[in-house]
Design a protein that fits this description.
The complex is a heterodimer of chains A (299) and B (308).
Chain A (H helix, E strand, L loop, with lengths): L22 H17 L2 H23 L6 H35 L3 H5 L5 H32 L11 H28 L3 H17 L13 H12 L3 H7 L4 H6 L14 H20 L11
Helix pairs in contact in A: 1-5, 2-5, 3-5, 3-6, 3-7, 3-9, 5-6, 5-11, 6-7, 6-8, 6-11, 8-11
Chain B lengths: L8 E10 L2 E11 L3 E5 L6 H8 L7 E6 L2 E2 L3 H4 L2 E4 L11 H10 L5 H14 L15 H13 L5 E5 L7 H13 L6 E5 L3 H7 L2 E6 L2 E6 L1 H6 L6 E7 L2 H8 L5 E6 L4 E5 L2 H14 L4 E6 L4 H9 L1
Parallel strand pairs in B: 3-8, 3-9, 6-7, 7-8
Antiparallel strand pairs in B: 1-2, 1-4, 4-5, 9-10, 11-13, 11-14, 12-13
Helix pairs in contact in B: 3-4, 3-5
Classes of the chains: A mainly alpha (299), B alpha/beta (308).
Chain lengths: 299, 308
C-alpha cells in the first residue's frame, strides 16, 4: 500500500461532493451492469446447449409426427406448451431472482444502496436487463424450434409460415417482460423468491386455468393473457385452437378469428399484462426503496 | 473564520428500537475531521450504530447527520465512504472495474471512473492485480478493493468496519498510516475493530458502546484517568528489587507493591505524581531500572474496566 501521495480519499479538504446520476442515467447504468453480470451466470452458458437440444428434439419429433400433424400445428404446440408455459417462465424467473435476490443475499446490494442515487431506477434497470435477456433467449428458442420444424419440408404442404415465428416471438417477448416483473417483485419482497415463483407458476396459474373463462383471477396470471394473444395472432385451425386451449374448447373456438387481444382497453389481455407488470414493479420498487430495506429484514 | 473542525458525523440523542428491543438508547456524539474508534462487544448495538451512520437505518428518535444532511439522503450518501466487514464483491469483475462501476453512480463518466479506480487501487497497493477477476484475489486484496470503493469518490466521512481484517502486518501498518493521514485531507473517519491495540494506534479518540448506550467518548488516557476506583498498575524490572519495593511502599501515591518472578507490580492511586517522583528516583537508582510497563493504560484495559 503506497500512502505517500495524498489522493486516496481526496486532497482538497472538504472537497465538493460528486453529484449522483439522474434517474434515467441510473436506470440505464443499472441495466448495463446487470447485463454484464448476467453474462457470467451459468444458466446463460447452458442456454446454447439447451437450444441445440431443443432443436434436435423438435427435429426428431417432427419426423415422427408427420402423419398426424402439419408443420404449423406441430410448431405451435411445441412453442406454446414447451416454451411459453415451461422454458420461458422458469428461465426468466430464475434469471430475475438471481439478479436481484443474489445481491441481497450476499449483501453486495449495500454497495449500491450507499451511492447517491434513487433505488427505484436501480431496480427498474435490473428489470429492463432481465426482460431483455429473457426475451432474447425466448426468441432464440422460438427460432431454433421453428428452424427444426421448418426443415421438414413435407410438413408444410401450403408453404412455411414465418408469421408463426414472429407471432410466438411477440408473445414470448411480452411474457418474458411480465415474468421479469414478477421475478423482480418476488426477489425484492421475499426471502425465498423461487418458492414463491413456483407457487405463482404452478399454484396460482394452474388454479386459474381451471376456473371459468370469465373468472377475474385469470387476469392475475400471465399464461391466460398470453394464450389469448397467441390465439389472436396465429389464427389457428379448430384443431390447433383445441390443442392450445384444451380445457376451454368453446372459448378457444370463439376467439379463432381474433378478439382484439392487443387492444389497449380495460380487460383486454394486453391491458391485463400491463397492469400485472405495473403492480409488480410498483410493489417491488416500494419494498426496495425503503430506507431500512435489506435482506435480513424481509419476509 | 472559525477554527472549529467541521463536523462530518453527528449523532444527536439517537435511539433505535427494533420492536420492543432498544438497540441504541439516547446516543450522542460527533466525529470531526479526525479518526474515531468505535469499540464494543458483539451485540451491543455497534452494527446498528454503523448502519445508522451510513443511512441504512432510520433512527426511532433523534437525528443522524452526515456533513449537516440527514444520513439517509442522497446528499449525505455522496459524502459517505463505507468499507463493510463482509467479504463479498462482484466476483467475476476485476477490482478496477468494480470500483469504477461504483463510481459511475456518483456521476463520474466511464473513462474518468476507470482512471480514478486505477489511481486509488494503485495507491492501495493493488497496481499489479487490479485487472484480474476479484474471485482470484486473496483476502487482503479483496480488502483493498473494499477500501478502494469506499475512498474512490473522495468522501468526507469514511466508516471502516474491521478494515485490518485479512491484511498482512506490512499492509496493516500501511493502512494505519493511510487512515491516520485522512483527517489531514478533510476526512473524518469512524473505525470499528475488535483488535484494540491496532485501533488504539490509529485513533484520536474512542467511542465505547455497551448495551445500547454510549459508555464513554474521549481519548484513551483521559478515559483511563476517569476511573479513580481502578488503581493504575505498573510492572517494574531493575536492580535491588527489595529495596525498591520498600521505598515505593512509603510513597503516598503507591497503593501496594507485589513481587513477580522477575520484577515488581505496583498499584498506583495517583499515577501523574508517581511518574514525576519516579523519574528522579530512577535516574539515581544504583544498578538501574530496566523496564517500566503500564499494565492497564491501554484501550483493552480501559474497555475491560468500563464494561465490567
Amino acid at each position: 500500500m503506497t500512502t505517500t501521495t495524498n489522493s486516496a480519499a481526496g486532497n482538497s479538504g472538504l472537497a465538493r461532493a460528486v453529484p449522483g446520476l439522474s434517474v434515467l442515467a441510473t436506470m440505464l447504468e443499472s441495466a448495463r451492469q446487470t447485463l454484464v453480470m448476467l453474462r457470467y451466470r451459468r444458466i446463460l452458458w447452458v442456454a446454447p446447449i439447451g437450444l441445440l437440444l431443443l432443436f434436435a428434439l423438435a427435429f426428431v419429433l417432427a419426423g415422427t409426427a408427420r402423419s398426424r400433424s402439419d408443420g404449423a400445428h406441430l410448431y405451435s404446440v411445441f412453442a406454446w406448451w414447451g416454451l411459453a408455459t415451461v422454458v420461458m417462465p422458469w428461465a426468466t424467473l430464475f434469471l430475475g431472482v438471481q439478479a436481484v435476490h443474489g445481491e441481497l443475499e450476499d449483501r453486495t446490494s449495500q454497495y449500491l444502496f450507499l451511492r447517491p442515487v434513487h433505488r427505484v431506477p436501480l431496480l427498474l434497470g435490473k428489470w429492463l436487463a432481465i426482460a431483455a435477456v429473457s426475451s432474447a433467449l425466448a426468441c432464440c428458442s422460438a427460432a431454433a424450434l421453428y428452424v427444426a420444424v421448418a426443415s421438414r419440408e413435407d410438413l408444410w404442404p401450403d408453404g412455411r409460415e414465418p408469421w408463426l415465428l414472429v407471432s410466438f416471438c411477440i408473445v414470448l417477448g411480452l411474457g418474458a417482460t411480465a415474468y421479469s416483473a414478477v421475478a423482480v417483485f418476488l426477489a425484492a419482497t421475499f426471502r425465498r423468491p423461487l418458492a414463491w415463483a413456483a407457487f405463482f407458476v404452478v399454484g396460482l396459474q394452474m388454479l386459474a386455468a381451471n376456473l371459468p373463462v370469465s373468472a377475474g383471477l385469470r387476469q392475475l396470471t400471465i399464461t391466460d393473457p398470453l394464450r389469448r394473444m397467441t390465439l389472436d395472432l396465429i389464427e389457428p385451425s379448430r384443431r390447433l385452437a383445441r390443442a392450445l386451449w384444451p380445457a376451454e374448447r368453446n372459448e378457444a373456438l370463439s376467439i379463432e378469428n381474433g378478439t382484439g387481444a392487443f387492444l389497449l382497453e380495460f380487460g383486454s389481455p394486453l391491458c391485463s399484462l400491463l397492469i400485472l407488470v405495473v403492480v409488480c414493479l410498483t410493489l417491488g420498487c416500494w419494498q426496495y426503496a425503503r430506507t431500512e430495506y435489506e435482506s435480513r429484514s424481509r419476509d | 473564520m472559525s477554527d472549529t473542525p467541521p463536523i462530518v458525523l453527528e449523532f444527536d440523542s439517537v435511539t433505535k428500537w427494533y420492536g420492543s428491543v432498544a438497540a441504541l438508547l439516547d446516543v450522542s456524539f460527533q466525529v470531526c475531521t479526525e479518526v474515531v474508534g468505535l469499540v464494543g462487544k458483539n451485540g451491543v448495538g455497534k452494527s446498528t450504530l454503523m448502519k445508522l451512520a451510513v443511512g441504512l437505518l432510520n433512527p426511532s428518535q433523534g437525528a443522524v447527520r452526515v456533513c449537516g444532511s440527514d444520513a439517509t439522503t442522497r446528499e449525505a450518501r455522496a459524502r459517505i465512504g463505507f468499507c463493510p466487514d463482509f467479504d463479498r464483491l462482484y466476483e467475476p469483475l476485476s477490482g478496477v472495474k468494480f470500483v469504477a462501476w461504483m463510481l459511475r453512480y456518483h456521476g463520474v463518466a466511464a473513462r474518468a471512473a476507470t482512471m480514478r479506480a486505477e489511481e486509488v487501487l494503485t495507491e492501495l497497493g493493488l497496481a499489479e492485480d487490479m485487472y484480474r477477476p476479484i474471485r482470484e484475489y486473496s483476502k487482503g486484496m479483496r480488502q483493498r478493493v473494499r477500501l478502494g470503493q469506499a475512498l474512490a469518490h473522495r468522501p468526507q466521512f469514511v466508516l471502516l468496519d474491521e478494515p485490518m481484517t485479512g491484511l498482512d502486518p506490512v499492509a496493516r501498518a500501511e493502512l494505519a498510516d493511510l487512515i491516520r493521514g485522512l483527517p489531514q485531507r478533510g476526512v473524518g473517519v469512524l473505525v470499528s475493530s475488535h483488535v484494540l491495540h491496532e485501533l488504539e494506534a490509529v485513533v484520536d479518540r474512542v467511542v465505547l458502546v455497551h448495551q445500547g448506550r454510549l459508555l464513554a467518548d474521549g481519548k484513551v488516557e483521559a478515559l483511563r484517568d476517569q476511573l479513580p476506583e481502578r488503581p493504575h498498575r505498573l510492572r517494574l524490572k531493575g536492580a535491588r528489587l527489595r529495596e525498591l519495593a520498600s521505598q515505593l511502599t512509603n510513597w503516598p501515591e503507591v497503593d501496594g507493591v507485589s513481587f513477580l518472578s522477575d520484577g515488581l507490580e505496583v498499584s498506583l492511586s495517583g499515577h501523574g505524581a508517581f511518574y514525576q517522583r519516579f523519574s528522579d528516583l530512577a535516574g539515581d537508582w544504583q544498578g538501574g531500572i530496566h523496564e517500566l510497563i503500564p499494565l492497564d493504560d491501554d484501550l483493552a484495559a480501559v474497555f475491560g474496566y468500563l464494561v465490567e
